[in-house]
Amino acid sequence: MSERITKASRHVSQNEGLIFEKSSPGKRAFDLPPLDVPAADPAKVLGANHRGEGVAGFPEVSEIEVLRHFTRLSTWNYAIDLGMYPLGSCTMKYNPRVNEFVARLEGIATEHPLQPQSLSQGCLKILRLLEECLLEITGMDSITLQPAAGAQGELTGLLLIRAYLGAQGNPRKKVLVPDSAHGTNPATAVIAGYEVQNIQSDPDGQVDVRKLGELVTPDVAALMITNPSTLGIFEQRISDIAAILHAKGAMLYMDGANMNALAGVARPGDFGVDVMHLNLHKTFSTPHGGGGPGAGPVAMKKILEPFRPIPVLVEKEGGELALELDRPHSIGRVKAFSGNFGVLVRALAYILAYGPGIRQVTEDAVLNANYIRKHLEGVFALPYSLPSMHEVVFSDALQKQNGVNTMDIAKRLIDYGFHPYTTAFPLIVPGALMIEPTESESKEECDLFIEAMLTIAQEAVSTPDLVKHAPHSTRIGRLDEVAAARKPVLRWKPDRTE
Amino acid sequence: MRYLPKSPAERDDMLASIGAQSIDDLFSRIPERFRLAEALKLPGPLSEAEIIEYFKQRARENSVAYTSFLGAGVYNHLRSVVTDAIIQRGEFLTSYTPYQAEISQGTLQAIFEFQTLVCQLTGQEVANASMWDGSTATTEAVLMAERITRRRRVLVARSLHPEYREVLRTYAKNSGLDVEEIGFDARGTLDEKALGSAIREDVAAVVVQSPNFFGAIENVPALRETAHSLGVLLVVAITEGVSLGVLRPPAEADIVALEGQSFGLAPTYGGPFVGVIATQEKFVRQMPGRLAGQASDSQGRRGFVLTLAAREQHIRREKATSNICTNQALCALAATVHLNLLGKEGLREMAEQNLSKAQFALHELLKIPGIRQAFEGPFFNEFTIRLTRSVDAVNKQLLGEKIVGPLALDPLYPELPHHALVCVTETTTRADIERFALALRGALRRAQEQG
Smallest Cα–Cα separation from B269: which of A315, A247, A125, A468? Predict the structure, then answer.
């Protein structure tokens, strides 16, 4: 083997079954303080509603077993804390630990969302300051922190547009979505009651501005654009795009998934965007946690403000803050209670750590992406050659000549101690390798990544089978996903174990 | 800056190797008039100590040192420190959605265990990897029922959490769903007569919560009979998961939308929590959200993958079952750890303590002149009382004694003046309850005297 793996070595990995397979009646991992009131008889109090037998199949294990179980499982995961996680469009950056600490403070974690607002001024001040910071960063006029994630932010944004256009007399029928867009965009448009019209990118991977003029008919409510696009390229004619839409009474929605390329450098509010969402779990460092939670605040221009979802944060006379419910033009409520508050706390802690220095974050993120691009260009094909911002998209066209595709390279990267980049997205690049290093990577880590990619490219020529059957260093090999979907096993059952 | 791992010299080296004169070269594609000339006006930069101090100051402006009798969808339960220790492991905290199965087996197996625990709790056959919260899970359950039945009318119990109903209405308005409310009877449960006259063969789903917003337990088996006789699906929302330790599971429901906040998640002013949808196997392809499934590698070793992705937005785009992408994975992990710690006996015991304390609290409150139980019938850890005075006025007095009183229902239900929703959990001590009863007695007496 031609392995030259600098970053990682192999070490022992503990085996561990399902927790249910360790269960034995009588073990327990939790004690309650003794009951200090007379014990009620559940059978008597609840009658036919009583679950006398307890939850069948529930585990019975000790504390050390629970701790070991999850610690062992955790060691089977890759994580930002272990190294570069270059998933394009995901912005896997360092998750500062002080953010976790402050979100757990007594007086923050303990607060009930329905408690009197006079006892919630601290929470409301946090929300207010975060609103102000995000408005300054986006250059927009007004904001809601309610949406639970990016996709819900998109929905909220489209509902704002729908409400605004509806108030003008016609909510219109269609939303335009570029073929390079994230899948949530079209899925969201449908939930907002719109028909999706997919539009083709031009040969440079940009929105075809000339064609756009024809596509924006009186039926079109909005264009959903990602800027920089999922190719990592800034839509240079963004203000022309906005002008075309505005001239026809349509609006420009921006998917803010890629704000890590812009924060502190340029503001969507300045280049014509009417409404946008931010992914606090991307740009603003709140942990992905294996898939969530996130938060998807929506920033907007003044004209959309009356339609914001309830509750709306307002400042009353005397400076007291309040969450207001009586908003006659509101699109309604999108989520119970006051947003994913704990995520919002973490995002504010992140912003406070940098202050205006957030520009340096953006610069470093763009520097890293361009550094990696420079060193891999030529070895990997670059289907769109316009300058990259925070991420770069290659294709597997050169490696395909030896039968090696983007997924194979991605899996081989695992052996080199890295998480794969995003594969096969955006859809307009066949065999895409979408690489976003973020600002959190040192030059040393970038160099190791470059070295790994270059070595894999050599392997694709010299020993293609080695790449095609990767990974070789993991606990398990590639799993049969087709079989898993054909006969889904989605839960443990006692009769399925030996 | 302490989070950025580059020295100025390294930045210069990297720029030079790219062939850029300055960092500004890399932003040249952004038209110059849109490039900021000045620094943003943001507070900071703050050191770690200053950040902690800022949030401690805010915390002090909140409800520290108050005893609370609020529930209504967010519950204060005991949480083991073990849960937090585990979910703060970087391998869980700082990993992405487990699309790359070979290096995500920890997260994937934990999701598989979560799905199993939810099935065991709810008596359903399959559960997903999580939804944003109970309110959006309930809404997605309704949208799912619409897809299965291809019908567009939905009958929703007025005793479903008011904020859940609002979220459902926001989504329904634009998907052409027709949402009608069904009131409650003298027991606080769904008015079966009203249901009988509203339900027809064009109804997609009947939606109830159990225990419902007033704390009353719905008759799920009977509702299923009514619904199924007309091909209508029964959706059951659960806001208080701990109740399942002592209450019969809603096995007769077609879809269950559960809020899992009670399983180890702090109230945190309303989130992040964890919603989840559980249902029957035959409906699995209409489910929203991610699913982990068992799989094997070429050597026959067991592993787990995200499966049935052909339902999801990243594959199906505008034809997906939902737009959800990011979910509440870490919260689902916390719930999984918490439920494993409690185990079968711990959950039962916790649930029984809630039941006993709520019984005791009601008993104590009913001794006070002017207080009566609003609805007869069994309840878990929440119940509705009726006062002789405005709940709001009484609660203002309780605040003076460092008590956050029960939720006033009249702003949400004008038909229930002077009604309040009381919640007690295993964290509420006998002394708390007695102090609350005493304070309430005093407040009502003073109100009486003032006429």
Answer: A125
Q: How far is B232 from chain A (nearest CA, A)?
A: 22
Q: What is the pLDDT of residues A85-117, one digit of tens each?
A: 999 999 999 999 999 999 999 999 999 999 999
A462: number of Cβ within 10 Å: 11
A residues 29-68 closer than 8 Å to B (CB): 29-33, 35-40, 42, 45-51, 54-61, 63, 66-67
Q: Do A192 and B174 touch (CB under 8 A)?
A: yes
Residue B384 φ then ψ, to 5°: -105, 130
CATH 3.40.50.10490 fits B81-338, yes or no: no
Q: Which domains does chain A have, with CATH numbers?
A: 101-356 (3.40.640.10), 357-483 (3.90.1150.10)
Confidence of residue A415 (pLDDT cuts 50, 70, 90): very high
Contact predicate B168/B142, CB 8 Å:
yes
The tokens describing A99, both together, are 């953010």
Given the DSSP bridges, would you call strands B403-404 and A195-199 parallel, antiparallel or unpaired? unpaired
Q: What is the ipTM of this complex?
A: 0.98
A93 close to A285: Cβ distance less than 8 angstroms = yes
User: What are A392-414's pLDDT values in tens digits?
Assistant: 999 999 999 999 999 999 999 99
The answer to whether the CB of A456 falls within 8 A of the CB of A413 is yes
Contact B429 A36 (CB under 8 A): yes
B162 to chain A, any CB pair closer than 8 A? The answer is: no
Whether A2 has a pLDDT exceeding 60, the answer reads no
Report whether CATH 3.90.1150.10 matches the domain B67-78+344-449.
yes
Q: Would you call B329 and A289 a contact, using CB atoms and an 8 Å cutoff? A: yes
The answer, for A288 touching chain B at a CB cutoff of 8 Å, is yes
- What pTM was estimated for this model as a whole? 0.98
Rounded alpha-carbon distances, angstroms, from residue B194 to A409, B183, B189? 62, 7, 12
Q: Can you list the residues of chain B whose pLDDT is less than 70?
A: 451
Dist CA A436 CA A422 (whole Å): 9
Question: Which residues, 6 or more positions from A317, have their beta carbon under 8 angstroms from its beta carbon?
Answer: none
Contact B212, B189 (CB under 8 A): yes
Minimal C-alpha gap between B16 and chain A (Å): 10
A447/B contact by beta carbon, under 8 A: no
> Rounded to an integer, what distance in angstroms lies between the CA atom of residue A128 and that of residue A112?
18
Residue A54 is nearest to which of B52, B116, B348, comparing CB atoms?
A: B348
- Find tokens 């220790």 and name the residue: B85
Q: What residue ranges do the domains of chain B occupy?
A: 67-78+344-449, 81-338
B376 interfacial to chain A (CB closer than 8 Å): no
Do the Cβ atoms of A290 and B110 come within 8 Å?
A: yes
Mean pLDDT of A488-498: 79
Rounded to an integer, what distance in angstroms lies between the CA atom of residue A309 and that of residue A362? Answer: 30
